[in-house]
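Continued from yesterday's entry.
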Amino acid sequence: MNFIKRTAFLSFVFMLTMSAGAQAGKQGINFFYGVGVTGLSSSEKTPEFDAAGGGEVIVGFEEDGWAVEYSGFKTLESGTNTTNLDYTASITQLSLAYRTIEKGKMYYKFKAGQMTADFNFTGATATAETDGTFVGLGLGMRTSREARIELEYSLYSSDTIDTTHMFTLRYLFGGAPAENAF
């Protein structure tokens, strides 16, 4: 069992333990959606991918701080260390996330889930398709009664490519409204 899979398992155990106290407060089921920008970089450079960035779309359902999120994004064209071989990545994530109670309009977020990444290469007919797990940690801030901004770091691991670091800045609409009016 590799490090990412162990961390994902421990994250799920931690989130289940936290749910006993409903740390985010009693809230009904709420739908949220948003947009974001994501940057990704391979840690060991075995596939020799340069860092890439792109846009992200997020949808999800949330209750009492728990959320099931589905997100997808596509990167801009980036390069590899192979001469004249560029790539784009199309990535989808399905995750379980837990958001702590808001204190001073700020909160923390823990996340784990499944990710699929397709790397399409220019000048080549082959694509690299990978499936793996990821864990994430984020910091969020309320911007209005029903909107928030999040900064998130995720670590993705699969059997076919090296560990990949992802940094995401998101703006979310909907979800559970703030307890106090702005």
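--- second protein ---
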Amino acid sequence: MPERAGDTATGVRAAPGTVTFADVEAAEARLRGKLVPTPLAWSQTLSAMTGAHVTLKFENLQFTASFKERGALNRLLLLSDDERRRGVIAVSAGNHAQGVARHGALLGIPVTIVMPETVAATKMERTRALGADVVCVGSTLEEAMEVGTSRAVAQGLTMIHPYDDPAVIAGQGTVAIEILRDDPATEVLLVPVGGGGLIAGVATAVKHLSPAVEVVGVQSEHYAGMAAALTGAAAGDGGPSVADGIAVREPGALPLAIARALVDDVVTVSEESIETAIGTYLEVEKVLAEGAGAAPLAALLEHPERFGGRHVALIVSGGNIDLRYLADVIVRDLHRSGRLVWLHLEVLDSPGTLAQVSKAIASCHVNILQVVHRRYGATLPSKGAFLDVYVETTGSEQLDEVVSLLSGLGYAVTTDTETPPL
């Protein structure tokens, strides 16, 4: 845990030359009436599942489905008349781009967005639809940033950085003011961390308003730059991530300085846990959370003993996720939980066998989705066959019941929760 120095006002000192609570408070006043405060709601089911008193801050209900609108709008509102006339540029793979594009258009400010060529087509089209001039270049966000920085200088555009900017950080911090206003009993805030703009703003507000509240960041174990800097954890190996909104290799310099002074801890979670959290939000709360938005719930599910019995607020930071990818995530989560599974049986190739197996499965109230009957195989005995049955269960207990019943009938059964349907 990073050390914090105190002052006479709050017991906490901000990092030198950085964002203050006055900046966040001013941003909150500036944004009032321009952004609708998002709801904070208690989750009875998640509280029962985790042993904590869980509240959810639904930033996925912003117009562009992300908290990024807060920082983007605050920064735009602080532009001079000359800067507004010349226009702005931002580099982003999604949420920040849409926030800058939307509010730039509403304010009559020309917006250029630079995105990597690998960005999802849906995110690119949404950003264009919001009125921005979109340029796709480079295979990574870092390469896109190099181009964006060069264009800003060459064309006299103001760069709106997604996280390493004091006004952006102050805007993001307004979410914490709303959380503590709506639930003063909050003891812990779990905050997704990529470049660090959100947690820097949140910590700045929280440690002024209620210094005893614990601010804990959450990162994917593959992109754990902030955790590595603060706790010595492994920085991660990069690569594809379900939480692309926080798939940032290194935090910004200013957010890191603020985090060193004010953030209590940063934990990492697995990609599987994030996918499970996305599925849990859909099933339990009927809420669509992108990977970054689901990361705080993943931390709570991975470490229930750490947060049990406490008032924990989870920031559902965004809800932008490609539908095709969402379908894959849901199916993988159903497989991991044993609700979609292949049953592999070695049977005699004789009349009535398939009927007996089907009757046994049906007696457990398990639904059969697909059947594959194979008569050839190097290990098969004469007159034998492989029977692969893809079933839908309510979970591991019902799956165990089916396997036990089939084994009792003399069938050798193996299960496979990795292979997708054919």
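The radius of gyration is 25 Å. The first strand starts at residue 40 and ends at 42. Will compare against the first tomorrow.
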